Amino acid sequence: MKRAFVYLLICIISVSLTGCGEIYMDKHEINEIDLIRAVGLDNIGDNNIRMILPLLETQSTGGRGSSESSSPGQSRIVKEDGRTIFEAEVKVHSYLMKDLSWHHVQFVIIGEEAAKEDIVKYFDFITRDHEPRLSMLPLIAENDSAENIIDQINTSNTVIAKKLKTITDGTGARSVSSKLELHDLIKMLDNKYASSYIPSIRLVKRIERQGEDKDKKDVELNGYAIIKGRRLIGYINDDTARGLNFIKNKAEDGVIILKDKNGNQISMEMLGAHTDIIPKIKDNKLEVDIKVEAGFAIAEYEGYKDIFDKKTLDEIVKAENKIVKQNIDSVVNYAKKNKADFMGIGDSVYHKYPVEWDDYYKKNWEDNFANIKINIDVKSKVSRTFNLREVTRGKENKK
Amino acid sequence: MSQKGKITVYQAMLLFITATYTPAVRLISSVTSKEAKQAAWLTPFISFILFIILIFIIHSIYRKYKDVSFMDAIYDIMGSFLGKIIVFLYLITLIILLALYFRYFAERLAMSIYPHADINFFIIVMLGVVGITLRHGIVNIARMNEIILPFITVIFILLSLLLLPNIKIENLTPISYKDILPVFNASFSVTAIWVYVLFVFFIGDKIKNKEEIKSYGIKTGVFLLVYTVLMIVTSVGVEGYSIIARAPLSYFIVIRDVSIFGIIERVESILIATWLLSDFIIISVFSYIILELLKSLFNFNDAKPLVNVFIILLYFLTFYLAINVFELGAYSEKFAIPSNVIFGLVIPCIIWGVGKVRRKV
């Protein structure tokens, strides 16, 4: 009887505890939560920051800069200023009708001024708080503020996080950018001998729109922001950014345009590349070999000649090698000029020669890096073309 | 002697393994990477050697003292007066350790998922559950653990498999002779947890077939070696030592980034379930051992009447132990690790050495 009473009591207590809001303060019903998928952070001067939150709901909140009306599917932008990010976040809590959830943040956009001031400062809350994950993707607003980028891409039928996901998923297509997760960035920032790179986004006008979205712009990933120490020092774009992707084994796809003897253009589609960074010590001097192997396919040819003979293919390979080498040379020169080892050369030396690195090279690495000899060796190949081999009416043109 | 109310060496080892899981999840990856950096995954190999030495010592002592507790063995080897002092010191160490685990159990929940919750709530619930469990004795705890440990193991293996594709070898290399000293120093934190095996054998009078300590001990050591190396490899291999060394809940932040085919996320909730079960086992086992120590030290016939008073005192001690989680962390690293090594490895070695000299072992 006594035992039955105890079990009954436990059951009653267990059932009643499910609504125990006073003790269990972190309980939130799903309809009481605003899921943050992307966040923008800007430096607005006077040691203040601005937090921009695109939230997926059509509802007026009355915040400092919140949109009063928005169409279904359009993000509602909430903007708040504060001395710190956390202060801004708490302010948002005070007027937002729902609780903010940082668990599902996928993107954090840092404005250029913030990145120039001190990038580490802007990541502290995101990495310290218990809700956000370290797998989110950081982005830098190139020559722009995070606020403007978010405002511009917030069109009537665009969900900002979805738009950002689409462009980051498609980074491989041009190989001038890549996905970089926050924990990889933190590792780079933690390494006092290395500099860091963060994918940068910029506004461009690509799509003609009508109505209220007429003046809205598009966003594209076109390279990397380079961080030395804790501050932004510049950007690398296009071919230079592709050079970094080759070095970091992130070059997946992309187009290289060559010309045949008659000046007809050939579009080469990259099928993948692999790079080895091989440090070597020769006569007590450190050298680094960057060896690249890349595969290409002929995707388009404007001319009419048969370019599939060995001689022409060899010429194409030579031209490919030259272009890839130029891409890599470009990023190496940028890095050396700025004494910023964001390519991971120091890390390669450390992994191959840990003792020598510790005893000698890591001291004064910035200067050592700027003077190091870097040999670039590119071996590419043309693997294939696709549906049709010879050009249409090619034989007739030959005559 | 009656075998009723006793557990087997196998069950004792299972209890020990479950008890090590909760401090391992919290502490090992973080503390070892702070000292040994990318070479942290090598630290369990040194701890394994020390663990095997400890197993041989326990085996050697219990070969002579078959049906008594470790406390009775200490009294006989060291003499009654010195023995009582040593047992008293063990009692103090274990009470502080228990309070530490109680506080960590609550703080960890607050740090990871319930930042605004009152930790009183978690502590009172756990105290209640442990209080009820203690009345049913070690056999019930051991049987319950035979269900809990396989569950924890399966979950741990599954989580490790999900993390394997994210491991980057460059986060775990290079290894050179310069890593020997840091690895050796870092191994103390692993050893400090593995020496809990001695504490489990304090209740040797409740454990049967002790002639199998060596055999099961070696198997346990191999199991611990594999799972600890796997835990460090997955943590440091995925996030890098610089992040793991700074994370108070290192394994937890690694698991948070697990995504199954990009569809299922937030699998950390299952990790929390496993560490709660492990917390329950370590708190129950340590409480039981402390009650047995009290019984032995003050010559009580039964420890059950002490349960209520003990639980209430423990509640207050849990809060007085540290003001905040930073003090708790500092206490854990600067006091608990060295004291565990001293009480779990050094003193048993001395007792065994004295026993050899006095031809008692």
Describe the structure.
- The complex is a heterodimer of chains A (399) and B (361).
- With 399 residues, chain A is α/β, with parallel strands linked by helices.
- Chain A folds into two domains: 24-244, no CATH class; 254-399, GMP Synthetase, Chain A, domain 3 (2-Layer Sandwich), CATH 3.30.300.210.
- Chain A has helices at 2-17, 85-95, 112-128, 146-153, 160-169, 182-190, 238-247, 310-337, 345-352, 354-361, 365-371, 394-398; strands at residues 33-35, 38-45, 48-55, 76-82, 99-101, 107-110, 137-141, 196-204, 218-228, 231-237, 255-259, 265-282, 285-301, 373-385.
- In chain A, helix 7 (238-247) crosses helix 8 (310-337) and helix 9 packs across helix 10.
- Chain A is globular, with a radius of gyration of 27 Å.
- Chain A starts with a helix and ends with a helix.
- By secondary structure, chain B is mainly α.
- Chain B has helices at 9-36, 43-64, 70-78, 80-112, 119-135, 137-163, 180-194, 196-200, 213-239, 241-244, 250-256, 268-297, 307-320, 325-357, and strands spanning 7-8, 207-208.
- In chain B, strands 1-2 form a two-stranded parallel ribbon.
- The relative contact order of chain B is 0.21.
- The mean pLDDT of chain B is 93.
- Classes of the chains: A alpha/beta (399), B mainly alpha (361).
- Chain A binds chain B through residues 23-26, 103, 130, 133-135, 183, 186-187, 190-191, 347, 350-352, 354-355, 358, and chain B through 111-118, 121, 170, 173-178, 238-240, 242-243, 253, 256-257, 259, 266.
Oligomeric grouping of the chains: heterodimer
Count of distinct strands of chain B: 2
- The total tally of domains of chain A equals 2
What would you report as the Rg of chain A, rounded to the nearest angstrom?
Answer: 27 Å
Shape of chain A: globular
The helix-strand sequence of chain A is HEEEEHEEHEHHHEEEHEEEHHHHEH
Distance between the termini of chain A: 107 Å
Q: Which class of chain B in CATH terms? A: Mainly Alpha
Helix/strand structural class of chain A: alpha/beta
Would you tell me the structural class of the helices and strands of chain B? mainly alpha
Output the number of helix runs of chain B. Answer: 14
How confident overall, as mean pLDDT of chain A? Answer: 88
Unreliable spans of chain A are 58-63, 65-70
